[in-house]
Amino acid sequence: MSSTIIICLIICVNFALSPSSSSSYTAAVYEHRVVLNPQPHLNLSRAAALRHMKTNLDVYEEQAQQAAAQGVQILVFPEDGIHGFNFSRASISSYLETIPDPQQETWNPCTEPRRYNDTEVLQRLSCMARRYSLYLVANMAGLQPCSAEIITFDTPFAGRFGVLTCFDLLFHEPTITLLERGVRQLVFPTAWMNYLPLLAAAQFQRAFSLGATGVTILAANIRNDELGMTGSGIFTPAATLGHHHARKGEPEEGRLLVARVPVLDPLWSGGAEEEVVAARESGGGGDLSSSPSVQDEKGVDGAITPPPSAPPPLLPVTSSSPTFNSSMLCDPFTFALLPAAAEGRLNVCQGPLCCHLEYRRSRPGGDGELYALGAFAGMHTVCALVRCRGPEASSCGQEVEEAETRMDFLLSGKFETPHVYPSLVVSGVKMEQPRRLERTTVGTVTMAHSNMTAGLVAASLYGRMYHLDKV
Question: In whole angstroms, what is the distance from residue 271 CA to residue 123 CA?
Fold first, then answer.
């Protein structure tokens, strides 16, 4: 049996850039409407495979040119964006390139194109980065020795970045290991299918950046309506600097997001010393345990300003809503419906997890929108306030993208894991910044918010129990 396997490699290519003394850099992510091979299970010649990949690489070239015109220093493209997906092991063979180990040799594919055969895609990407003087992160199909590595790369403008792909953001390896090694800036090419109300792409990207303290995520997703793929963004601990989730009915096209991003590498020496120290202190242990309240603390990138004064305390109303079971993303949640009262309190428990909600409807939605508080304790632990899809309790936990009801709320739960990722999604799958996030020493995590800008779709605290994952 061959000692190699087919894998998708993340290729970071760059033109030599001068070291920067700035405390921020310009980043871009591109959500790409990939041109697919309509018959991916048929074997193609190398020439035919290259013609197919050229259609996507031409779009990459256009976006790299646009990004460079805006001063972008690092550009992230999505997973599978060059070759597509749904291949068999045999039919993808003509798309593969063997890529030399950059730890073993120095090679510039653009300036030395004849050193290796069948490296046309790598050469195109290398010349793209060279032509536009930027770091380019792209995912391509390669034939490589079987290995699992933690991948990082260094830049002269922002220090070190870690590399994720696919659904890595959900798992301990390589994500948590990168954080434990002090990496605070992540590039994330993905082909993520959205699963509302808890795991939409941009939703979890934002949740991770909030929950894993001091982390920037540059995430680029595929745009494919048939497969429910959309959701890209540039997220820092204190702000969503740009994100995109295509709404139903919007043209199926790409989207370039550009933002100025603060440097968070604690060992980077290009910025002012006090900013390096602040970044180091914000790095923490990769969870909410060392996170300050964003209600009255300024975030590490300075984008959070103190919110308006908190709403008055809720009246001591206790709900007697009965609980019921309903599936949410294939998990059997225990739910309780929010009563019709304008405000109240609610508790729902499942196993060792108890979720607490205090709420006040500030703007009721039309058609009697139904909401429920849910709890799930299993391989992950979740407290979630969700809008139900219809007027029946059985619809709670189903996918919803739009809502009209706005409410001030406080959602909390006591978690047995330090890895808890908070998210707040409003109508149109937009992300809002919670007014307050706190974690106590006994594991209670609290998220509070007020003055919503749109109707509430879902607010959740998503705890990952990595030690329970099956190998």
Answer: 33
Q: Per the omega criterion (within 30 degrees of 0), is the bond before 316 cis?
A: no
The count of residues in the chain is 471
For the chain, first and last CA: distance in Å? 23
Pairing status of strand 159-163 against strand 185-190: parallel
Consecutive H or E run containing 376: strand 371-377
Selection from 22, 53, 31 nearest residue 192 by Cα: 31
Mean pLDDT in each 10-residue stretch from start to end of the chain (471 residues)?
35 58 92 98 97 98 98 98 96 94 90 94 97 97 84 96 97 96 97 98 98 93 97 96 95 98 88 37 39 32 34 45 95 96 96 97 81 97 98 97 97 97 98 96 97 97 93 57
465 DSSP assignment: -
Query: For residue 182, what are the contacts with CB-CB under 8 A and spacing of at least 6?
Result: 266, 267, 283
Per DSSP bridges, beta strands 456-464 and 380-387 are: antiparallel
Tell me the C-alpha distance between 88 and 98, whole Å. 18
Please choose, from the candidates 245, 173, 163, 174, the residue with its C-alpha nearest in 3D space to the C-alpha of residue 204. Answer: 245
**Rounded Cα distance, 437 and 21, in Å:** 32
